[in-house]
Design goal:
Elements: H1 2-6, E1 10-12, H2 14-23, H3 27-36, E2 38-44, E3 51-58, E4 64-71, E5 77-84
Parallel strand pairs: 1-5
Antiparallel strand pairs: 2-3, 3-4, 4-5
Length: 85
């Protein structure tokens, strides 16, 4: 996942973009969560059966954030949703 962020091989879903906008979460915060956060849960995508991961991080202003992401069949990282905790 970190390699996908480093090489910009990722895509945010429209839902993730909407949620990031609502919670005022910057793209940099999402990238930092994937790069420096930790996986707290592994789930199975109901539609595709692919593994998806919940990643948690504490932002510089002491706010927690979680990102739900999966790696697609092509190797691209998909950010499914993001929210403050």
């Amino acid at each position: 996942m970190r390699e996908c962020i480093r090489t910009h091989n990722y895509r945010m879903t429209e839902h993730a973009q909407d949620e990031a906008w609502k919670d005022d979460i910057a793209a940099e915060d999402i990238e930092n969560t994937i790069n420096y956060g930790y996986i707290i849960e592994k789930q199975k995508d109901r539609e595709t059966g692919e593994a998806k991961f919940v990643i948690r991080n504490i932002l510089k202003y002491q706010q927690g954030v979680e990102v739900v992401a999966k790696i697609g069949f092509t190797g691209r990282l998909y950010i499914l949703t993001v929210y403050l905790i």
